[in-house]
Amino acid sequence: MRLRWTRKAKYDLNTLYEYYYLKSPRVASRMYNSVLEEAERLLHSPNIGVKVEELSTEKLQIHSLVILNGLYKLLYATDNNKVAIYRICSCRQNPESTIFTLFS
Q1: To the nearest whole number, what is the mean pLDDT of the chain?
Q2: Gap between the Cα atoms of 63 and 22, Å rounded
Q3: If residue 71 lies in a helix (H) or strand (E), which one and from where to where?
Q4: Which of 13, 68, 71, 81 has the greatest number of beta carbons closer than 10 A?
Q5: Domains, the chain, ranges and CATH?
């Protein structure tokens, strides 16, 4: 399997890093690496996330994997031999607010 990050997911990861870097560079680095490790874990266990009905379509099934001790979630989909990371969202965020920005 291959892992692919969308532009928005890369932006989310960099924004997360920058936010925590201002508080603690060490914490920011640990969080960044943890997100990458969780994403890599999807290559071996792509079905560990929960399907997000509100974001899924007929053609694309979006799943959510809670990471970083429940603070964030990876929104991703699998297709053939690929895992695509679409967004990194706060678990406090309403999933419906992500619908408008998931693919645009």
Answers
A1: 91
A2: 30
A3: none
A4: 13
A5: 2-91 (3.30.2310.20)
Cβ contact 53:64 at 8 Å: no
Length of the chain, in residues: 104
Residue keyed to tokens 């890369």: 10
Cβ-in-10-Å burial (0-12, 13-18, 19+) of 9 comes to buried
Quickly count: other Cβ atoms within 10 Å of residue 17's Cβ. Answer: 16
- Nearest alpha-carbon partner for 101 in 12, 30, 17: 12
On the question of pLDDT at 68 being above 80, the answer is yes
Confidence (pTM): 0.88
